[in-house]
Amino acid sequence: MRYSKLFIPTLREVPAEAEIESHKLMIRAGLIRRFASGIYNFLPLGYKVFRKIENIIREEMDNQGGQELHMSALIPAEVLKESGRWEVFGPEMFKLRDRGGREFCLGPTHEESFTVSVRNEIRSYKQLPQILYQIQTKYRDEIRPRFGVMRSREFVMKDAYSFDKNDEGLNISYKKMHDAYCAIFDRCGLDYTVVQADSGAMGGSGSEEFMVKSTVGEATIAYCDNCGYAANDEKAECLEPEDNGTGRGVLEKVHTPDVGTIEDLCEFFNCKAGQFAKTLIYKADDHVIAAVIRGDRDLNETKLQNLLGCVELEMADPETIKRVTQADVGFAGPKDLKIRTIADFEVKHMTDFISGANETDYHLKNVNIDDCSINEFADIRNIVEGDKCPLCENPVKIDRGIEVGHIFKLGTKYSEALGCKFLDENGRENPMIMGSYGIGVARTMAAVIEQNCDEKGIVWPLGVAPYQVIIIPVNTSKEEQVEIAENLYKEFKEMGVDVLIDDRKERAGVKFNDADLIGIPIRITVGKMAGDGIVEYKLRKEADRIDVPVADVIRKAKIDLCL
Ligand code: ATP
Ligand code: MG
């Protein structure tokens, strides 16, 4: 393509709306533009990369026997009511009505649509297994849309669903999707880790996430260098610590007016946050419960929710807290609390600790677990760096990751709810065993940029680059430069290479900056030495520039293009 004819609005300035590198570069390189909060439009260069990623996904899904189809984004409420998710999704789901008042949503995911389609068409074990997929737009009214297309409210997902007659079959389908995902992310040039993920309280026997390690990732990964264990923070298990003996102090009530935060308490009692037991009051569906963790820890709401088996879990409001603790917010404690109380394993082994007294302006000192009314102990906190690996007990490390893909053994959760059954070899009716598998196309693109950029711009890996080669005639009024550049352009095109010629009447500096910003892997500059039949050859990812005789350019590029 000819640069002069293309719509690639590059920007020199760093856009104020963008916080992270990939977002800044996607705007600066003219790949995307913001349309509304969490809603982005793809411009030609961005859409070219988008389609390359889409095609990689498509090829690898097809390689594993996946069949592509396309479902409506508009989903009638009934199917989500049947599965029980109409309520579960809450405000994240965009709901709407048609002119006749019938309810719909814009699909946040498509388990129900696929399950209903298969239910309506497939009857016999002879028709199984099936792996069906689509590359289609999803809508989620995210609380915090951020980082551009990394977390947006409209985004394209490749979502796949497998239907099998037994667990053995599911394991095979799941493995196929696992392998497809590895191939996809490899071809995208990503450095990623597969981590164990939570599969929820209701069914589901296994789940893994594909994480791209990155400081801007919103997910937390715990991993062990010793045994290879890796899990996200919702799944990573914290082992029960060793017994700490018994406390010796005498329980004492202390007047603590105006001592609100943990920091204030540390100062007041002259101790560390780890010596407090923090009591958090939650609403779990229709019940109010208390969760107790060490003062320096964070509660993991997924672990707590799985333990309780509740659909909704949220922090209680101040009135509720006052009602159940008889005290203002900030003075709850596990002694004499009249509601169901769950404490983290660590709390079980704390001695002589400090907690709220369930009385406004008072705390208790030298509390021991025997003083408290705790119903059960469980793992309900976030894992932290240095905690023991649940497999080999070596200290774990913590990193941040961008979740680009998620594979999930669903079991019969949807097939039972929606009556998706088949007749087995003995003529008996059974629910199909399902799996679901998702990749965010644009999030993958942003993750590729996060891992492949420098101070000048994007450094596209070959497989997803919008153009693989850019040819820059330095001075378009010099005939010999133009001629060599045009001939090379023609040759690359005939070879089927995605090639761009920068035929704009711009200064060389502008062309070089744009080529670096938009990240084209191979740059061929036709400049002063054109008269001697020499051009400059440079890879975007390397600093070296080399002079190459025109006759050798194609041969050299073929090697770098792996042709
Ligand atoms: P997250 O925890 O990041 O919100 P999720 O668990 O909701 O993700 P899934 O429902 O498993 O994600 O969706 C599958 C894939 O879709 C994710 O791995 C991710 O690549 C992509 N994805 C999910 N939400 C968004 C979003 N808001 N914007 C862009 N991509 C998304
Ligand atoms: Mg989400």
Summarize the structure.
The chain has 563 residues and is α+β, with helices and mostly antiparallel strands. Helices cover 27% and strands 29% of the residues.
Protein architecture, described:
The chain is α+β, with helices and mostly antiparallel strands. The chain is built from 15 helices and 31 strands. Strands 3, 7, 8, 9, 10, 11, 12, 21 and 24 form a nine-stranded mixed sheet that branches. It has a five-stranded mixed sheet with strand order 16-14-15-17-20. Helix 1 (21-28) packs across helix 12, helix 2 packs antiparallel against helix 6 (167-187) and helix 2 packs across helix 12. The chain is globular and about 95 Å long. The protein starts with 20 loop residues before the first helix and ends with a helix. The model has no long low-confidence stretch (mean pLDDT 95). The site of adenosine-5'-triphosphate (ATP) has 15 residues, from strand 8, strand 21 and strand 24.
Q: Give the percentage of residues in beta strands.
A: 25-35%
Oligomer: single chain
N-to-C CA distance: 20 Å
Q: State the secondary-structure class.
A: alpha+beta
Task: Describe the structure using short key phrases.
globular; single chain; 15 helices; binds magnesium ion; 563 residues; binds adenosine-5'-triphosphate; 29% strand
Topology of this structure?
Layout: H1 21-28, E1 32-36, E2 39-42, H2 44-63, E3 67-68, E4 74-76, H3 77-83, H4 85-88, E5 94-97, E6 103-106, H5 111-121, E7 130-139, E8 154-164, H6 167-187, E9 192-196, E10 206-213, E11 219-223, E12 230-232, E13 252-255, H7 262-269, E14 277-284, E15 287-294, H8 301-308, E16 313-315, H9 318-325, E17 340-344, H10 345-348, E18 353-356, E19 362-367, E20 376-378, E21 397-411, H11 413-417, E22 421-423, E23 429-431, E24 433-440, H12 441-451, E25 453-454, E26 457-458, E27 469-473, H13 479-494, E28 499-501, H14 508-518, E29 522-526, E30 534-539, E31 545-549, H15 550-560
Parallel strand pairs: 3-7, 15-17, 17-20, 27-28, 27-29
Antiparallel strand pairs: 1-2, 4-6, 5-6, 7-8, 8-24, 9-10, 10-21, 11-12, 11-21, 13-19, 14-15, 14-16, 18-19, 21-24, 22-23, 25-26, 29-30, 30-31
Helix pairs in contact: 1-12, 2-6, 2-12
This protein binds adenosine-5'-triphosphate (ATP) and magnesium ion.
Adenosine-5'-triphosphate binds at residues 109, 140, 142, 151-152, 155, 157, 403-406, 438-440, 443.
